[in-house]
Specification:
The complex is a heterodimer of chains A (276) and B (720).
Chain A (H helix, E strand, L loop, with lengths): L5 H7 L9 H18 L3 E9 L4 E8 L8 E5 L6 E2 L5 H7 L13 E12 L2 E12 H16 L1 E3 L3 E3 L5 E3 L8 H4 L5 E3 L11 H6 L19 E6 L4 E6 L5 E5 L6 E7 L7 H4 L1
Parallel strand pairs in A: 1-14
Antiparallel strand pairs in A: 1-2, 2-3, 3-4, 5-6, 7-10, 8-9, 11-12, 12-13, 13-14
Helix pairs in contact in A: 3-4
Chain B lengths: L1 H17 L4 H17 L2 H7 L10 H19 L7 H5 L2 H18 L3 H18 L2 H11 L4 H11 L6 H12 L6 H7 L9 H17 L10 H15 L8 H41 L6 H11 L5 H10 L6 H17 L2 E10 L6 E8 L19 H8 L29 E5 L7 E2 L5 H9 L22 H16 L1 E3 L3 E3 L17 E3 L8 H6 L4 E3 L15 H11 L3 H8 L28 E5 L10 E5 L5 E5 L4 E7 L35 H20 L4 H11 L1
Parallel strand pairs in B: 1-12
Antiparallel strand pairs in B: 1-2, 2-3, 3-4, 5-8, 6-7, 9-10, 10-11, 11-12
Helix pairs in contact in B: 1-6, 1-7, 1-10, 2-4, 2-11, 3-6, 3-13, 4-8, 6-7, 6-8, 7-8, 7-11, 7-12, 10-12, 13-14, 24-25
The chains are: A alpha+beta (276), B alpha+beta (720).
Keywords (chain A): Cell projection, Cilium, Cilium biogenesis/degradation, Cytoplasm, Cytoskeleton, Flagellum
GO cellular component, one term (chain A): axoneme
InterPro entries (chain A): RSP9
């Protein structure tokens, strides 16, 4: 959610129950402003909160002018002092995919994972158990990246693509209409498109290249991994992800207010197919 | 607009040279018409205004219009020019501009415009340039200048000097399409020089007309024409003055187009889409108004006295310190809904239990304790009746061939606990949204709890939705919801140590089997615990809800006992089965009531609870917050004296491993295997021959024993 409209966004996202306490809210309002100035970001988003056993991580992201460019992620333990996280790499993802369980809450905590590694020594190949240390910071980075790639969403029309390439915020975005807001196809994944190229030419002909340049939620697998609800009568549409429980996206139809926040343990819900 | 106006001005300046004198008179006469013309195109003129000039309020063009009129009358009287050079120049472009606007605008109204448009326009052009400054000034003034200041300098430049009449004429022609005036406004200006030759006007006029006609051609698809659309668009831009308008001009264009359709669809849209919003708002309005009943005074006292309603807002405040909560407005509505619940049902005590999220709708749950003796009857549930095969087997015995009797004995259904005890201690009401009616959830049976432990399903939000799972859940979503609520309550409802104490009643502690203390009461001498202590040590918190055994009940029920009783009553045939029953099942034991939560089991090295102070910045007023790691979403807070439990989440237990549905049980050995029912293969030819040979050998041996009957039997055998 945008740091500029933090209070309103928190109020709208409160239907999921987990939000921020007043002192965190106040700290965020101040510190995000300073972050924006210091790092010279175009827009700062408050991404959410990852619940750890000892402490919670508060995550913010900074965007540059091009909305789809890789974002800088910052984390903080007390909503005041922010530290920049390194960008996610494939190697990190592979490394942290073996770590399971909750986050500790201590960024210097190291997970131990024993692996069998083949080591060649003088012609002989034998396996040895190697204990690999994985830092929690690395895990944090890759989890945030995974969540972003999987479930960060934006309504159709909120961003538009210019012929030069960069993606900008659409200032004339008036919000989705009520009928559009209830459909999954009006929401896009906030990331580079993956499945767009696989569409048939007929489908592509109906798309508006300046608005429809991202994947929509319609074809997400498994089907039904999004829960879409209207709250407060029809005044607010809330999408909750079932794959990463804790991600809430809210949008007030016919207004510009939209945003998402993740408050959860940072674990994927692999049992989803059993639960639907 | 600057660009377009300057050529206009050029033209205007050039034409007056050629414009003829006779137009002068027309000017004066048409000044009146101009006035009226002025008022109408005001709107359009405003739309056309651009550039650095600050937008003048609607009145000013009028006022400015009046000025030129005055000027008009002035010079009108003394027409021969000694033009006030300064003031007069500026009106020209705006005049032209206004003429442009006036023209299209008025062209909508009068059909006779077009044919005249050419000529008056030409006249305008003529006179504007011919008289030089004076004419120009008159022209400009007559139109009223909104571009006065900005144009002034330019006007000076271009005014009487331009001679490139022929070159720029064509250019101007095109621009002048927009400048088409209608007869009224044009006539005003058509005074002075005859200038342009007779032929040129008609050419010009025709070109202008055709261009304008082209622009006004109605689109076959949408019924709009470019002319109107462009003027609407420019009007909108000038009204709103967005930044960098050129970047978003396409969106503006789209918006203007959509604006045409909005009115027509408005009623439809409102009807279909806004209806649910209004419905909910109406229901919630009823919530707010329920307080205004008759006999307010009396009831007010009653209400304050009884106090079955919890102070939801206070708890919500504390939970908000912990970062948990539904938002103040929503909580208040829930508060009112709870009040409605307590007003309509005879409730002793009520508590806001929490919110469970669902796929389509969410559940808001209230935990309720009815007043003594006012239990509402439970809806008769269909008990899972497991038929006994004994009856069948009895019937079969009468047949000739006795079918083998199975020794499968269906497991006895464990009866559910009575109301107000164990897992059914409280009654739960749910609703989807505050304002909607509250629905009572049925009591929970042990079978449901046992099955609920084995499945993991999302709630849909509809209470009557079926639960399709393996093992099959005995009930629908309302039962599953109730089972999960029971499990969550048993697992996560905690209170500070000492808040509750055991009642000093019957010496239940003596009996071992039924020694579960299942009742507690508030400790009046509770003095509170330091918040710091509550955070640091988990032993300061205790469970105050009974643990649910693996049987599915809180109080152990011995199934064997019952069957022993049954045995005595029923047939003796039962005795055979009894022998095959499993041996004495061990009594299940769970942690007793009021055990500290430090005794809770860990989940694979993860502590079951996380404690936190609500605020590190101001610890003296912070509250202790407890968060369950076993049931994510369960919270408890305490400020030393007060405490409260809350749940907000999806309603599932946490497990670091994947959920695996239970494996199917092995195929059950139903019948004792024996010769009667074991299938055998048909004998092969060799086997039959061998058998016959054996038989014959036997016969021979029998013959040696001199028995004739065997021979006969052998014959029988052979014949078969």
């Amino acid at each position: 959610m945008d740091a500029e409209s933090l209070l309103l966004s928190l109020e709208l996202a409160s239907g999921s129950g987990q939000g921020l306490s007043p002192d965190r809210r106040a700290s965020l309002l101040t510190s995000l402003l300073l972050v924006k100035r210091d790092y010279r970001y175009d827009r700062v988003l408050f991404w959410g909160r990852i619940l750890g056993l000892v402490a919670d991580y508060y995550i913010a992201q900074g965007l540059s002018e091009d909305q789809l460019a890789p974002r800088k992620t910052l984390y903080s333990l007390n909503c005041m002092e922010w530290s920049l996280l390194p960008p996610a790499t494939e190697e990190m993802m592979a490394q942290t995919s073996v770590v399971k369980g909750r986050f500790m809450g201590d960024p210097s905590h190291e997970y131990e994972h024993t692996e069998l590694q083949k080591i060649k020594e003088g012609g002989k190949v034998f396996e040895e158990e190697v204990v690999v240390q994985i830092k929690e910071e690395t895990r944090l980075v890759s989890i945030i990246d995974q969540i972003d790639k999987a479930v960060a969403i934006i309504p159709r029309g909120a961003l538009f693509k210019t012929p030069f390439g960069p993606v900008h915020v659409n200032r004339t975005f008036e919000g989705l209409s009520l009928s559009e807001a209830k459909k999954l196809s009006s929401y896009f994944h906030f990331r580079e498109p993956i499945q767009l190229k696989n569409k048939t030419l007929l489908e592509k002909a109906d798309l508006d290249p300046s608005l429809d340049f991202m994947d929509s939620l319609e074809h997400d697998i498994p089907k039904g991994s999004w829960s879409i609800q209207m709250e407060r009568g029809n005044a607010l549409v809330v999408l909750r992800s079932l794959l990463w429980p804790g991600l809430t996206f809210f949008h007030a139809p016919r207004t510009k207010n939209c945003g998402y926040i993740y408050v959860g343990t940072g674990e994927k819900n692999i049992d989803l197919p059993f639960m639907l | 607009m600057e660009d377009s106006t300057s050529p206009k001005r050029e033209k205007a300046n050039q034409d007056p040279r050629e414009a003829g004198q006779p137009w002068e008179e027309v000017t004066a006469a048409s000044s009146q018409g101009l006035e009226s013309g002025l008022s109408e195109p005001l709107e359009l003129e405003q739309g056309l205004e651009t550039g650095p000039q600050p937008r003048s309020p609607p009145q000013s063009p009028q006022s400015r219009a009046s000025i030129p009129l005055d000027d008009l009358t002035g010079p009108g009287a003394s027409y021969p020019p000694s033009p006030p050079q300064e003031a007069s120049y500026t009106p020209s472009p705006p005049a032209l501009a206004r003429q442009d606007l006036a023209a299209p605008w008025q062209s909508d109204k009068t059909t006779s415009v077009n044919p005249e448009a050419g000529t008056p326009h030409f006249h305008h052009l003529e006179q504007s340039s011919d008289k030089g400054e004076s004419t120009a000034s008159h022209t400009f003034q007559s139109e009223g200048s909104t571009f006065r200041q900005s144009q002034q300098t330019k006007h000076h430049l271009y005014g009487p000097e331009d001679v490139n009449y022929n070159n720029s004429k064509q250019k101007e022609l095109r621009f002048n399409v927009f400048q088409d005036e209608d007869s009224n406004s044009n006539y005003d200006l058509d005074y002075a020089e005859p200038g342009v030759s007779e032929l040129a006007p008609s050419m010009l006029e025709i070109t202008i007309q055709s261009a304008k006609a082209y622009l006004q051609k109605t689109s076959s698809k949408s019924g709009l024409n470019l002319y109107d659309h462009l003027s609407d668009m420019l009007a909108k831009v000038l009204d709103e003055r967005p930044e960098n308008a050129v970047d978003i001009i396409e969106s503006i264009s789209q918006d203007v187009k959509m604006g045409h359709f909005r009115k027509k669809l408005d009623t439809l849209q409102n009807e279909n889409e806004m209806l649910p919003t209004y419905e909910i708002a109406e229901k919630q309005r009823a919530l707010f108004l329920q307080g205004n009943l008759e006999g307010a005074d009396q009831e007010l006292e009653d209400e304050i006295a009884e106090n079955a309603l919890p102070n939801v807002m206070e708890s919500a405040f504390y939970f908000e310190q912990a970062g948990v909560g539904l938002g103040t407005d929503e909580t208040y509505r829930i508060f009112l809904a709870l009040k409605q619940l307590t007003d309509t049902h005879p409730i002793q005590r009520c508590r806001f239990w929490g919110k469970i999220l669902g796929l389509e709708m969410n559940y808001i749950i209230a935990e309720v304790e009815f007043r003594e003796g006012e239990d509402e009857e439970d809806v008769e549930e269909e008990d899972v009746i497991e038929e006994r095969d004994d009856a069948d087997s009895e019937a079969d015995e009468d047949d000739e061939d006795q079918l083998p009797r199975t020794f499968y004995k269906t497991p006895q259904a464990i009866p559910k606990e009575e109301n107000r005890t164990g897992a059914n201690k409280y009654v739960y009401f749910v609703c989807n949204e505050p304002g909607r009616p509250w629905v009572k959830l049925p009591s929970v049976t042990p079978a449901q709890i046992v099955t609920a432990r084995k499945i993991k399903k999302f709630f849909t939000g509809r209470l009557d939705a079926p639960i399709i799972s393996y093992p099959p859940f005995p009930g629908n979503e309302s039962n599953y919801l109730r089972a999960q609520i029971a499990r969550i309550s048993a697992g996560t409802h905690v209170s500070p140590l000492g808040f509750y104490q055991f009642g000093e009643e019957e010496g239940e502690e003596e009996e071992e089997v039924e020694g579960r203390r299942d009742s507690y009461e508030e400790n009046p001498d509770f003095e509170g615990i330091q918040v710091i202590d509550l955070v640091e040590s988990l032993s300061n918190w205790v469970h105050h809800v009974q643990h649910i055994l693996s049987q599915g009940r809180c109080n152990w029920f011995n199934p064997i006992q019952k069957s022993e009783e049954e045995e005595e009553e029923e047939d003796e045939e039962k005795e055979e089965e009894k022998g095959e029953e499993p041996d004495y099942t061990e009594q299940e034991v769970g942690p007793p009531l009021l055990t500290p939560i430090s005794e809770d089991l860990e989940i694979q090295n993860i502590p079951p609870w996380t404690t936190r102070l609500s605020s590190n910045l101001i610890p003296q007023y912070a509250v202790a917050v407890l968060r369950s790691n076993l049931w994510p979403g369960a919270y408890a807070f305490s400020n030393g004296k007060k405490f409260e439990n809350f749940y907000i989440g999806w309603g599932h237990k946490y497990s670091p491993d994947n959920y695996t549905p239970p494996a199917l049980p092995p195929v059950y050995q139903e019948y004792p295997s024996g010769a009667e029912i074991t299938e055998m293969d048909d004998p092969t030819v060799e086997e039959e021959q061998a058998f016959r040979a054996a038989q014959e050998a036997a016969v021979l041996s029998a013959e040696e024993n001199e028995e004739t009957e065997e021979d006969e039997e052998e014959d029988d055998y052979d014949q078969e």
